[in-house]
Amino acid sequence: CEDCGKSLIGECKLHGPLIRAKDRVIPSRARLTLPHYLTLRVLELRAGNQQILGVFAKKVIQKRTQFGPYVGQLSTKLTRYDESRLVLQVLKDGGKYFLDTPNEDCGNWMMFVRLARNQEEQTLVAYQHCGEVYFTTVKPIEPHTELKVWYAADYAKFMEASAVFIKEESDACPLPPVAKEPVEPWICSSCRSTFATFALLESHQCIHKDRV
Length: 212
What we know:
The protein has two domains: 29-159, Beta-clip-like (Beta Complex); 184-211, no CATH class. Helices cover 11% and strands 25% of the residues. The chain has three helices and twelve strands; from the N terminus they run αββββββββββαββα. A five-stranded mixed sheet has the order 3-9-8-10-7. It has a three-stranded antiparallel sheet with strand order 4-6-5, with no helix packed on it. A two-stranded antiparallel ribbon has the order 1-2. The termini are far apart. Residues 166-183 have low confidence and may be disordered.
């Protein structure tokens, strides 16, 4: 205590406790990279105060706007799996690696973009170029609309996933038709979650193995 000149364990009984000043909270790297015309919204609050976030447009974003590259750690397995986000892999030096984002300081804002569940809600397409993954808008995005993404046709084959196609405008070249065969979902034996491809199931099961 600087007032009575004594070295004490705990509070000074004569002058009381110190006034504690807290550091200002600094946003994570991922949140700091968010473009000024996009915003994050909390869509759901789960157990343990876990926030489910979505990325929304604050102004009109034109078709063919490119975002990226996606920032993540190259890894042979995922340390963090979220069923609402795309699993992303890239080809580097002849090897296939996951773009892993175990926390918000290991990625950029693109890690918050949720996957599109159908053709109507998809606004972005993910694809690989020169060993990096980019997202590009496939139609104009209106303000207050959530950005949602799915694989491009070639990237879907690389990821062993089904392709979701956006309806092309009349002045655009139509995408080639893709033959689709009905497939049974892959089911996780540990938690009974279902996945469209074996690759997604395998990535998910890595999480169970790590927890064990």
